[in-house]
Each structure stands twice: as C-alpha cells, then as structure tokens.
Amino acid sequence: MADQNEPPPAHQPGPTVQPEPRWTGPQWIGPQGLGQPTPLRSDGVGLPYLDDDEPQRPVGRRRALAAFGGTAAVVAGGVALGLSPQVRGLFGDAGPTVAGDATGPTVTDGTPARPSGQQASTVRTYTEQNESYMGSRAGKELRRNTPTGGRSYSGPAAAAEATKVTVKTVLAKDPVLHLARRATFGATPRLVAEIRKVGIDAWIRTQLEPAKIAPTRGELKLADLPTLKLNSRQLRDQREQLDQRGAQPEKEVVDATIARQIWSDRQLFEVMVDFWNDFLHVAADFDGGGPYRTAFDRDVVRAHALGSYPEMLVAANRHPALLLYLNQNDSRADAVNENLARENLELYSVGVDGGYREKDVRQAALLQTGRGVDDGEYVFRPDRHYVGKVKILGFSHANDSADPKKAEAAIDAYLTYLALHPSTAKYVAQNLAVRFVSDTPPKSLVDRLAKTYTANRGRIRPVLMTLFSSSEFWAAVGQKVRRPLEYLVATYRVLGVAPDASPGHDNRDNRRTPYAQGLRQVHDKLRELGHHPMGQPTPDGYPDVYLAWTSAGTMVNGWNEAGDLLTGRRTQFTYTAAERLVADPPGTAGAYVDALARRLVQQKLTTRERELILDIAGVPAGAKVDATLGGAVVAVARAILASPQHHLR
C-alpha cells in the first residue's frame, strides 16, 4: 500500500500498524511502475466502522470477524494462506500463518518473493504479469494443490460427472455450484435452481447464445444512461450539454458494465466481456477517449466476445478508441509511432515470448501507417502509408501500393495472421485457463484449448466448450479467488439487490435518475477498491491471480460495503432486509446460522466457522432467537460474506 503523496516504502516483514490507519485501494504495478493511487478513505471509515464490539459480548465482533474473514484471504488450493502480514497486524494474531507474502521484494521468512528477480514493474504482458506474481513462495504453495493433468469428455455434464475433485478446499464439491461460481459473477439461489432444473449442458448452451436471453429489468433500465444511445460523433458534439446533465460517456460505459454484471442473465457473456477488457485492453477514461470507448465496448468487445478473436483484433485496429489510445493517429511513414504495433504483438496476440524481435515491431509499425482518426471517425490516409515489402514473424507482404483498398487488405491480413499464430493460440488459451480454472492452470488444459482455438480459426465458443468439457475445469474447485470487483458484484447478486429505488428515496439530483446515481456510487466504490471495468490506465489488463490483490484495506473495505448493502444504505436500489433473507428462519441460533449460510454461500460452514459466527452473534447454538438473531443478523450475515466460501470462486 502506498500513500498518495509519497513513493511506496520497501516491503518489511511484519509491518507496524497504526491504531487508525487510512487505507488506499490496491495499486496495480504495470509497465510504467505504480498505477494511480486510489483516493484515501475518509476518517472514520474502515476499521472504526468495523469495530462494533460490545462489552457484554463474550467475544468481540471485530476480533471474531477478523478471525473468520481472515481465513478468506485465502484458503486457496487447500493451502490456508490465511491473513497477510498486514491483516494480522491489524487484528492481532487472528488467523493462520501465511506461507509467504508476494506483495513486496521479500516474503515473511526473508526469501525473495520472485526468485527470478523479475519485478512486476518490468513486466509487459498480461500473462507475464500473472506469472510474475505467481513466482513467489505463496504461488508455489498454490501450484502444489492444482491438478496437473486431465482429459476431455463428450460434454460438460459428462466431464462433471466423471471428474473426482481431489484438491483440498472449503468449498462444496458440487459441480452445479462450481459452474455457477466460475461462469457467472456470482451464484444466486435462482441461478443455482435454474442450472439444476435444465441441466449443466443445456444451461451452458443457452449461455453461449446470449442474444436469445431476454434482458432483465436491470438491463432495460440502462436507458437511464443517455450516453449509451449516442454514437461517437454525437458524444463529441454534445459533450458540453451532457456534462451539464452529469453524463460522462467514459463513466457511463463503466456504469453500464457494472449493471450488466450484477443484473444480466447473460452471465457467461458478461464474464467473457470482462475477460476481453483485460486481454484487449483500452482504458475507459484515457485522455481524449471519452467519445470513443462506448463504441469500442459495443462494436468490438461485445460484438465479438463469444465470436471470432481474429475478427475482434481486426475490428479493434480499425477503431478510433484503440488508434487514439496507442497513438496510431500520430504515426506516418516518415515519423513512425510503434505503440500500437508493439502492443498488437506483446499484449493482444503472440505475447512477449511469441518469437518476435524489435525489427518485427518496426516492420509492423511501418505496415500499419496510414490508419488514423479524423473528425471522430476512422480514416485511412494514403499519403502517410509506408509502401514497401514487409516481413513480420512468418508473415510477408509486398505492400506495394498506397491504394486504401490494397493497403488496408495487407494490414488486415497481417492482423489475422497474428490472431491465428500458434503463440496467440497458446496465449489466449493460457489466459482463459487462468480465468476459469486456476492461477496455475495445468499444461494439459492449455494445450487442449490452444489446439481447439487453432482448429476453429480463433472462434471462442468451441474453445469454451472444450474448457467446460475438460476434467481440469471440474477438478479445480476452490482454485480461484474473487478479485475486488468480483467480490462486490457477487455480494450484490446474492443479496438480491434490485435496480429500483427504495421507498422514500430522496432524489436530490434531478439531472440523473436514482438508478444512474446508484450505479455511479458502485463505480466509485470499485475505483476506491482499485478494480473497476476498463480501469487499468496502461494497456496491460488487470492481473487475474490472487497474489496480485492481497490487500488488508481492500478486504476490510469489502466487508464494510457488504454491511452497507445489508442495511440498505444506498437507497437508489431496493434491498431484502437481513432478517428476511431466510424464509421462516429457524428458532435456534445454530440452525439459523446454518440456514443463513446456505442462503448466502449455498453450503454449510465448517464447525470452527460456525463457532466463530455464533461468537459474533454472542449466543450459544441452542439459544432461542427471533428473526433478527437477537439484533445480530446483519453482523452475522456480513461475517458469512467475509468467509472463504464467498471470497472463493
């Protein structure tokens, strides 16, 4: 964690923690070093808010919650990594000892966090970022519990039935729950019931055809965001009027993405949109990009998220958002800008280890000259295009004409070649396996996915079907941890937060609807947590491994937000009261805790976790209780949402 006004201090084992720390969100370390720090939390928010100990309770709620929620960070791969040193410092000795901390240059036992010496600040590609973080002792512990091999079956249901889950995990080894956690932004009782009713195969087939799934009320209400309906030229020309209405397109495209993650029934599609937003990344709020990112989301990412990656890459390279983001508009034959050419190789296709050299970057940059943006639209300028033979990796082209039709055909042929390159197949496969299976996915699965990608010329649906039909997917229960956005969205989903304003909501800002205001508040909270859609400022997407997100402040902040949802503080939405989460709640404390756990995390807690929860409630298991659990139902529900069962996906 780094203060806003000072460079981050070197990591020291067992940090000293001040009585009332002020937390920033996690800061991703990208190619340019530390990313932009998130705003400091205001005084009185964070730990003091969590500290609701009461003298009459036998065990303080804060300590019990810390002991319980601390194990969530993380019981991954069966190795109880537990609390990070920062969190243990906050809460005393609660929680088990970690195997190692990868957030700095050393781990708690003094050994190097990244034995290769490779620091995240020097890492360029999405895969390399993840591998850098996993090059720690804690990463090795995760690897030890990851299945190392597997096989493919005739379909997902057959693979689920035949696969025995052998990894150590606190999660229930129920294939329906596993699918709901991995292929969506969070299981809900309705979703789980739907999968059980139609079956695994039918549910996946339906999810792979999102256009056939009816929009939900939350999606229909996106009409409240005026910028989503406008094209890039309209957004540019109407910027002043939109600003007066409090409608910024670069923010509303993020607001809309969050809404879809929470409320859409097209969950697998939204997961893949999020995946591509990290893989083929264009920041939502890059300088000058406001009018263009909405169209990039619609015409590039969403148009091809379950389609063809070669088509997505070609479309992206003709889109003003990417051309402006990576300075292609400034590139011409006599003054070449290499940014887009480099990222097309390093980030968007073969990867840094894909076999290209600097001369390939230069040749690609020359070939792509001429493409740019004029008056808000994509253009090709023949007078800026380099004419002459080019050779990039195994691709060669005469490129002997500046005629737009011929020159652009040459560029598109090159991009298609890149997208279908064997290194790209492996790169896409690796990242999909990291997203859906494990921070350290088995090579057998990566190879199988890459083979399917190549055989189907980069079409994504067959690759996903191969993934879901593989034993490695079904064997990896509990091998992924929710990143901050995923944790928060899953919490909204499982609590059944509805997109309509609460009764009595005071809509003080008449320029924007309660729904639009509420989404912006969720967006701002995710910015505070350091993880929001399209939020990474540099071209590398957010990392998708747990060790990149270890942050005491983020964990506590997430617990506090869960408390806010349970008490309905954000009145732009409607909530189920905590005492009504369980229909006909049992009359004894232990049975009530069990029922609440089944409602929120779809399974029973361990005996130790149940004891800690009862400590939070301050009553024994056999005590008679009402629907409010003696006034403790919010604290208990919040603690369950701090459990490993809710943090893991």
Main attributes?
two-stranded antiparallel ribbon; 649 residues; 31 helices; two-stranded antiparallel sheet; mainly alpha
Question: What does this 3D model show about the protein?
Answer:
Helices cover 45% and strands 3% of the residues. With 649 residues, the chain is mainly alpha-helical. Among the domains are: 207-423, no CATH class; 579-647. Helix 8 packs across helix 9 (200-207) and helix 25 packs parallel to helix 27 (552-566). InterPro entries: DUF1800. Residues 116-133 have a biased composition (Polar residues).
**What portion of residues belong to β-strands?**
under 5%
What does the oligomeric state look like here? Answer: single chain
Q: Low-confidence parts, pLDDT < 50 over ≥5 residues?
A: 1-59, 71-124
**Structural class by SSE content:** mainly alpha
Number of helices: 31
Largest beta sheet: strand ordering: 1-2
Mean pLDDT: 83
Q: What would the principal axes of the Cα set say about the shape?
A: globular
CA-to-CA gap between the ends? 25 Å
Largest sheet: 2 strands, antiparallel
- What level of helicity do the residues show? 40-55%
Total strands: the figure is 8
Radius of gyration: 25 Å
Biased composition (Pro residues): 1-18
Region (Disordered): 1-57, 103-157
Biased composition (Polar residues): 116-133
Task: Give the secondary structure arrangement, pairings included.
Blueprint: E1 29-30, E2 33-34, H1 47-50, H2 61-70, E3 75-76, E4 79-80, H3 85-91, H4 126-134, H5 137-144, H6 156-162, H7 175-182, H8 189-198, H9 200-207, H10 217-220, H11 232-237, H12 239-244, H13 249-263, H14 267-279, H15 293-304, H16 309-316, H17 320-325, H18 339-346, H19 358-367, E5 371-374, E6 377-380, E7 390-392, E8 395-397, H20 404-419, H21 422-436, H22 443-455, H23 460-468, H24 471-475, H25 484-494, H26 514-529, H27 552-566, H28 589-601, H29 607-617, H30 633-640, H31 644-647
Antiparallel strand pairs: 1-2, 3-4, 5-6, 7-8
